[in-house]
Structure formats: structure tokens, C-alpha cells
Amino acid sequence: MAILERITKNVNNKYWDSGENNFPKTDRFPVKNRYTAGMAGQKFLEGIKEEAKIYGTRCEKCNVTFVPGKLYCERCFERLSDSWVEVGNSGTVHTFTVAWVEKDGSAKKKPSIIAAIKIADGFILHRLENCAPEEVKIGMEVKAKFKPKNQRKGHLMDISGFHPA
Ligand SMILES: [Zn+2]
Q1: Residue 4 is assigned to a structural domain of this protein
Q2: What is the DSSP letter of 47?
Q3: How far is the CA of 75 from the centre of ligand 1 (A)?
Q4: Residue 90 is part of which domain span?
């Protein structure tokens, strides 16, 4: 279940799905409490799902653009609920790691690269694709690749990954 879906009874919320159709059921984890993305998280995820756009919020006082957007500036506490801005779909690699091992401990056939992508003044943690581990550089420009609209569910994985720009 994508995080934008709402439930009215906690008993209906039995697990959180990774959002990947090819993951086995063992990759679901049980949910015992109701959780929502919150107002800012919902706006951020809806931007990805409906428009294939990444939104942040801007505090003009502090000259900071938060990604994902926040309802309040963490520096001056200014309310930012009306300060949503498109931040583009590109960013730079701030840091990254390479995973060589599957969750079950076996060697991966192909390593995966997970990076903190700096967009405006914030970060998104996501997969880097279309590049080999030895090609990744701190500061390299990357661009979000969105799944087709009919496959997007209101989940960060609606972005299938970031590719070199
Ligand atoms: Zn501020």
C-alpha cells in the first residue's frame, strides 16, 4: 500500500509494502500503528505521482529551499505551507555507497549504488542507475527517472532511480 492511501481503521493496516511488485511477501513489514506522510509529505509525494515533479518549500527569510518540503522552517519557524516551489528533477551526488550483498547475505549479481542526492538545500536518498560504481563521483549531476504515470503510486519509488545527467 502506498503511503498516500488512507485507512480509516488501524486493523486494516496490516503491512507496509515496499512498493516493488517483484518483492516477495517476506519483504513486507508489519505495521501496528497508523502512519501518514503528513501534510508536507503528502504534497511532496503527490507532486511525484501526479506531475513527475519534485517540490520543496522555500523560506525567503533564511534563503533556504527544503527538499522534501517542510511545513515550517527549521531555522526560524516561519510557516511554509504556502511556499511550495518546483526544484527541478536534477541534483548532485552528495555521498554514496555501493551494496555488493543481497539481503540474504549472498553476493549480488550486479552491485547497487545508493546515494544522497542534493537537490536545492535538501537531500533525497535513492538508487543511482545507468552508471558503474567506479564512475560515480561526489558532485556529479544526476537526474530523476520517473516511472510511467500509470505505474506511480504516491511512493518515493515512483522515481525508479537517478541517472547521470
Ligand atoms: Zn527560515
Answers
A1: no
A2: I
A3: 5
A4: 10-164
Helix (H, G, I), strand (E, B) or coil at 131: coil
Tell me how many domains the chain contains: 1
For residue 107, being part of any structural domain is answered with yes
pTM: 0.79
State how far Cα 122 lies from the chain centre. 12
Q: Is residue 2 part of a domain?
A: no
Centroid of ligand 1 to alpha carbon of 126 (angstroms): 27
Residue 17, pLDDT score: 60
At 42, which helix (H) or strand (E)?
Answer: helix 38-46
Residue 43: strand, helix, or coil: helix
* Kind and range of the H or E run holding 146: strand 141-146
pLDDT for the residue 23: 54
- Spacing, Cα 61 to ligand 1 middle (Å): 5
Cα(132) to ligand 1 centroid in Å equals: 39
pLDDT score, position 14: 62
Does 77 reside within a domain?
Answer: yes
Q: How far is CA 131 from CA 100, 128, 137, 144, in A?
A: 15, 7, 11, 14
Please, what are the averages of pLDDT over each run of 10 residues along the chain (165 residues)?
A: 60 59 59 73 94 97 97 96 96 97 90 97 97 96 97 93 96
Check which CATH number belongs to the domain holding 92 and give it. 2.40.50.140
